[in-house]
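Here is one chain, start to finish.
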Amino acid sequence: MSFRTRPVIPVCAAVLVLTLTNLNACTLWGAAGTNASGGTIISKNRDWKPDHTQVLKMHRGGKGHAYFGLYAEGGTEPGIKEGVNEKGLTVITASASSIPKSMRDNQPGKHGVISTLLSGCANCDEVLAKKNEMFRNTRTMFIMISDRKKIAMVEVGLDGKYALKTIETGPVVHTNHFLEKALSEFNIRIGTSSATRLARITHLMKATAKPCTTDSLAAISRDQHDGPDNSLWRTGKNERTMASWIAETPAHGAPKLRVVIANPEQQEQTHTFVMDQKFWREMK
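Its structure:
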């Protein structure tokens, strides 16, 4: 079944901080352990050019786990943008805009990884066991992955280089430039928007009451503190926030998913799902 909607971070001197905003931007944030009632919760504001529409779809293949995702249709880069599988593994991503687009586009043999993770892994431990196989062949991006127990944050640079850390308790945030020192060479130019959003989401995640909930992260997702191009919820002319995705996975019980879709020239819609056995059995 498809759901359609209707008609200030320190930087080394060698890095250029642009006064322009970055395109292809997104903001990722979440919490694990005691900060998330013993489970995990992760969130993404998806920012892109308003040149396409988005739909929610179930994928059931001949092999691997079934998964439910947000897909872009039309535009310059159609396909799945985030998803959750029947085992409760959630995957969200953001572009590595600190690397010029010409370099990101020139990655022969590299590929996306969302569908591979969702169909092939039941939890973060399985991801960790396959990390070299997975991420050395992935095109440059940032990937946040969650299950019931932990969050994995992956930064993928060029030439098969990547860094991975796991969070079992506490917050995690990311925007569109590299935070791991080992990959700082790929911060060729850090956009003002990425730096501003990172500072803002870091502040809000420290300030919000714990444990984090879907409602508290939904409120954060609407933050417009820094104007149309640099806020968490962006309303700029060239790029805007197209969707909000919040996946709450408790230590026990069914995961919950909240998705806001803001397609161009359509009424914004909010979908909520309890991802229990009935959901996976009946959703077509």
